[in-house]
Amino acid sequence: MQRIAQPDEHEVVFGLYAGGREYWLLLSADPVFARAHLVTKRPRNQPEPPGFLAALRSRLQDAHLKAVEQVRFDRMLHLTFEGEKGRHTLVAELMGKHSNLVLLDEAGRILAVIKPVPPTKSSRPLLGGHPYVAPPFPPKPPIWEAREGDDPKGFEGGSPFLLKLAAAEGAGYLEDLGRRVETGSFVPVLSPGHGAYPLSVAALGLQEFRRESLSIALEQHYALAVPEHHASILRTSLRANLERVLLAREVALSELEQSVEAAAKAPLNQLYGELILAYGSSLHGGESELEAIDYEGNPVRVKLDPELSALENANRYFEKAKKAKGRIGLVQDQIARLGAERDEVAGLLARLDSAERLVELEDLRDRAASRRWLHTQAQRAKSGKAEDRPYEGHRIRELVGPGGYRILYGETASANDYLTMRVAKPSDWWLHVRGAVSAHVVILTGKQPEKVQRETLLFAAKVAVANSPSKHSGYVPVDYTLKKYVRKPKGAPAGTALYTHEKTLHVEP
User: Fold this and answer.
1) 3-state DSSP call for residue 473?
2) I need a labelling partner for 112 at 20 to 30 A (CA). Which of 33, 88, 257, 499 fits?
3) End-to-end CA distance of the chain, in Å?
4) 16 CB-near residues (< 8 Å, 6+ apart)
């Protein structure tokens, strides 16, 4: 054994020297592509050697491979090594999603496992320090001993594909297969898009090409099959993520357009408030409507809340007008930003449909990741079930700021508390109007606060001002600091926060 590499989390490759030649033996415990065969390409290694690779190197480096044995006709191999560290066995269980690689000492005790299996997940745990227990499969005769009318489940090695091939080949095929296994008389073929096989599969109508060895056929098959599989998974995942983002942006734009429509009514609400004050002396309380004449001599009907006084009804309209005018700049800026982002997402979806190679899809994934569009699995409650409502029902709103950063703010004191104490991470930026009441605003930084540009901080500061009584002031100071410097005094009212290490931005609403 001259070299041991672990290209990925499920795969190891051994560099073996024999007869003046170097060989590369691949063992894969991949849940989809579990296999064992020789390869021609030198393996790459992960930047940081995993623990399983370290265990293999410490015990098998420079050892001699003495035997490779298949367990009956099952999907299991025992590789026996002898060297200065003693005798060791590497068990390759190549059984679909349950595949594993297990290193044993001479006494049969587990030294390392490429995929540890705790007792909570299986009745046959595979953990270091425990004795190795083989899969509980009762011995069965090999499939070539089956005869017409036998139940194939009672035989070992009878895959649905093999049985289909045997039926296509006709009587005597399984007996001939047995003779070929005993003598090693194989004719390896590669069937593009289907697989590599030790014997012809032409009887099934599949195209096939002869290969020098089964390992070469397998290597060529998986060189295409593995990237195609990963490309398919990546394409599906990307499409789901991008469609989710596109829908979210379209819904947000629709809501913002409604805000613009509401803002367009600001002059009308202002007029209604003024008319109520002008005609206030004619109101005696309890009216649900006011009939008045506007400044141009046109009749106007103004709805009233019968439970409010004339002054209270007027102030209600004035507040609507003020709120609409105060938010229109922020809303229009957000519409432009979200509109551009929606178009960008739609463009990526179009490119996704035309991308064929894995490298193209990986480029699209990296682009989506840089724009923070990839969904990360939501944290689950202790019960194991996802939260029914985001932020446990607290009124926390989300905006998209410059650079694609997610910006959250609370609409109530309890929402501010929840946002600051439960949602924000220590490395997120936290903003608040200096010395006054305002929403708590958080910029989610993904543990990289230093990358957040001043433009994004200013945008978030304007959000804090827009959600505070200072929104109609001149220049408003807004403090910002990292969440790790923010705390809530014990027993303080909801929304109260103390902070240090702050810097200040001056915002013009």
Assistant:
1) coil
2) 33
3) 71
4) 1, 2, 22, 23, 24, 25, 65
Question: Per-residue confidence at 389, pLDDT binned at 50, 70, 90?
Answer: very low
Tokens found for residue 140:
């069965």
Count CB atoms within 10 A of the CB of residue 54. Answer: 13
**Digit-coded pLDDT (tens) for 259-281:** 777 667 778 888 999 999 999 88
Q: What are phi and psi for residue 358, nearest 5 degrees?
A: -60, -40
Asked which of 13-22, 176-185, 226-235, 464-473 is least confident by mean pLDDT, the reply is 464-473
Q: CB-based contacts of 196: which residues, under 8 Å, 6+ apart?
A: 188, 189, 190, 211, 214, 217, 218, 220, 221
**Distance in angstroms (rounded) separating the CA atoms of residues 422 and 204:** 60
Give the tens place of pLDDT for each residue, 342-387.
Answer: 999 999 999 998 998 999 999 999 999 888 788 643 333 333 333 3
Query: Please, which residues bridge with residue 488 across strands?
Result: none
- Residues 374, 285 contacting (CB under 8 angstroms): no
CA distances from 450 to 343, 387, 427, 453, 465 (A): 28, 31, 9, 8, 23
Residue 288 CB coordination number (10 Å): 9
Instruction: Please indicate whether residue 392 or residue 295 has the higher confidence score (pLDDT).
Output: 295
How high is the pLDDT of residue 379? 39
Burial class of residue 95, CB neighbours in 10 A (0-12, 13-18, 19+): middle
Measured distance CA(477)–CA(506) in Å, rounded = 4
DSSP annotation string for 209-231:
EE-S-HHHHHHHHHHHHHHHHHH
* Helix or strand (DSSP H, E) at 301: strand 299-303
The one-letter amino acid code at 471 reads K
Q: Which domains does the chain have, with CATH numbers?
A: 3-113 (2.30.310.10), 240-370 (no CATH), 391-507 (no CATH)
Task: Give per-residue pLDDT as tens, 30-44.
Answer: 999 999 999 998 888
DSSP-assigned letter for residue 420: I
